[in-house]
Amino acid sequence: MSFLINMALVKNAKDRRVAIVAGSVNPVGGTEIYVGAAIQVLVDAGYQVSVYLNDMRIPSHLAGLGGVRFVDAGAWFLSRRQFMSDWRNIRRRRDLIADIIKNSSVAIFHGLHSRQMFDALAGHVKIVIAFHLVSHFCPAGTRYLPASNTLCDRRPGPTCLATDFREGCLKHVFNGKLPPLMIPEVLMFKRNIRMMSSPARALLFNSEAMRELVSDEPLINGKSYVINPPLIHAGDSIPGIYRRRNMVFVGRLDASKGCSDAIACLAHLPEQVTLDIVGDGREKKRLVDLSASLGVEQRIVWHGWIPTKNVLALLSSSGCLLVPSRCFEAWGQVGPQALSAGCPVVAYDVGGVKGWNLPGMTTYVEVGNVKEMADAAAKFLMEKRPLNESVVQEARTRFGISRFGREYIKMVSSCIET
Question: Is 355 helix (H, G, I), strand (E, B) or coil?
């Protein structure tokens, strides 16, 4: 991987040093992909990178990189109980890591951390806080309302407790019981976000939708950036036509991801249309029963979790991808993956998925409107028309790692120059 990066802004040794603080860079979820790609592009651009993790699960393609120092930063991620039992060692480790960060020009925190830590570093290093997850804005890490099976449109705050009383949305994440320590977090959530963000020179969001969630929280000292995550895995082949009358769903099998709507969508379409379901989860038995009750069980193939290359091969020969999420999708990888493989996308209009938009390849419908989703899918499934190869190449360029690298390095350079 290489980039044509203008290094004129990197003036001295300290300006070449960037510290990244994150939970992990194990390439499983969206945040991990984002952090791993950031490390890669910084190293390729000639920066020295120090990475502080709360575990040491390092992907093999990053472990061998020169110019990267991995340090266990578990002290910043311990529970309150662990903190009280081992506070002396925690303080020593925290001070040690803070001293290392002070030798960097920019520190990028993926997620919110201790306000005291930000204050200690503010006079020594430029701070960037990166937001990827809805959990930064919803105290329980979800904006899905299980009782009404809808998306919550409230901003986090005291009203969340009243919503939880009706919906059980906070308890949904904690296996049916809201921990007492979460209650003050809910009541003071917006205040905490404002306080922790104030020392930052810049805020980094993975989608415009994430930035809009905190649009009423002004950044005092700097600016905000939206840099969409890179597409790590892209389709290798481009089909000449939409060859099959099948739809694909990829994701966890739980209520918030909306697989039940994908199955209901199938019932609105002709019998020759089939559905491939990639993924697994606690809702599978209920979904199997639903397919039987709708009379479509013979038209569904249950794949479970399969390798990414197999998912891409499936997408490249399919009629369309369904993304019927009822949760707030901060960004999501599956949409850009499908587009890069030449597979059109029909999605509920939630969160950051509008950022995938490619004319002629994406359609967005109202959340919960299964009939509208089926009608949109039918337009892709029933017409065997040639695929515009230039549109697919546009998807690979627009969502690719090279684009991400240019934008990320530009942000780091801007923070250094400020």
Answer: helix
